[in-house]
Sequence to fold (274 residues):
Amino acid sequence: MNDPRPFGTFAPTGITRWVIDRTRGLPGSWMGRRIAMIMRRVVMKSLKGQPLDLETFGVRMRIVPYKNVCERRILFTPQYFDLDEIKLIAARNKGDFIFIDVGSNVGWYSLLVARKVCASSRILAVEPQPEIFDRLIHNIRLNPFGTIKAVDCAVADKTGELTLFLDPLNKGEASLKIVNSSQTDTIRVPAVTLLELVNREGFSHLDAVKLDVEGAEDLILDPFFREAPASLYPSVFIIPDVADRWQVDVRKLLEGKGYRQTLQTRMNLVFERA
Fold:
């Protein structure tokens, strides 16, 4: 459970604050990233398991950077963390804007998009891991946006209770497929298809969908495109660049439905549909 004490209780101080300020100002070059990694290691050893409260790009978050790569990136180097993708999603902003964030983790995408879009927007943050979901809820409540709904389930190729594979050294790496780790934990979680999720929420269209499900993107998209009407095809899909883990060629699947790749970043592929 999250510590109920108010935001700011765990504000970084001393050497921790100094290192965070320095790593957040480093360039995205190889050298900048290398220096950030070295400085991060120094601070991580001294934190002794406590969370940290920070405001980043206008978003408040309580970060627990242990065994979660996502939270370490937010804490030390948010300037490297998918800002081009987030900007592209937010650029779709209009009165009835709808964004689904599948594999939301602690809410980085959802919160930064929420800060940029209008108050009538609807953002669905989907996260199946109970511990991470608890942090997601806490971070949503720390901010005044009012446009994010958190959903604690997996998105899969079928509805029901499914096994989720976890990397105990990186809690952000959870998948319906076995994760790339010598150690693997499993939990049972509720799951729905993407189309069922959309129908449950009563969405008539989708502006953007981000999938980050550690190689199980094909399990989600293949049945979605077989069953969903074209009116529900999102304008934008953002997926991780992990083709070696797909059993279905997701690029070809998207291109066959009228999408074209418009951006490739260090980690992700962006597809847009006219």
